[in-house]
Amino acid sequence: MPYATPSFGALRLASPIDIQRIGTIATCGFFGGPVCAWYRPFIAQYPMDTLKSYCQEFADYMKSPRHAVLVAIDSYDALESTKSPLNLSVHEEDLILAAGEEVVVGVAVWALEDGSQRIGDFQHINDAWPKIPPSENRDQHKEHNQILCARAHAAQEKYHGNPLGKQSDRAYTDPAYRYFERISELEMLVVHPAYQGHGHGGALVRWGLELARMDGVKQGVIGPEKGMKLYKSLGFELLDELQWPGDDITPDGLRLGVLRFNPGS
Fold it and tell me: Model-level pTM?
């Protein structure tokens, strides 16, 4: 990496050998959360569809020149499977660990800002990748995803005043684009339930904020209430809240906060 980066400490860059484990962490960690309940309401019936989907999504992030993917490490808890409401440990065929052995327990993804001099620095190009079976996506609710994007479009018009026809393709598919164009963005953050409360989420977020400080750029994030508490405690400012009413599939609906970190404030 030609440019200095924040100290990793107990973190490290994710690698292709982590893909299966990361998919398990995301599936177990997001299960029961408001975004998962909205977008993947059938995860309990089709957990392997969710696992395969997340494995592919994180592999794509790691291959992208515009993203950085970091993982948090901890000692393996032999009772891990009993501390998650969704047990996927039996599907980690290549992961055989003893209690106390180091294991990946959390993961975060950042999108670099437009024009960043770090583009390509965190990219995995020539690595050997595990074969990821395609997901049938039976866990997902496509209409809910479409509703989420539509509300994000309306928010874009409210805050930016730009006609949608002048936006890039990303503006039609990525809710964060409406708020975070030309600044870095924390796109994903998840810790396995067995290791939550140990400071791993905060350590991952702080690494990204230090990167933003070093580069002198703002950083944005869209997250649920639990995430908002963490982000605000670390210096993010709440800009807005997006809400979607409940229905027969997801009675509680969905509420997300739009936050931004300014390294100069």
Answer: 0.87
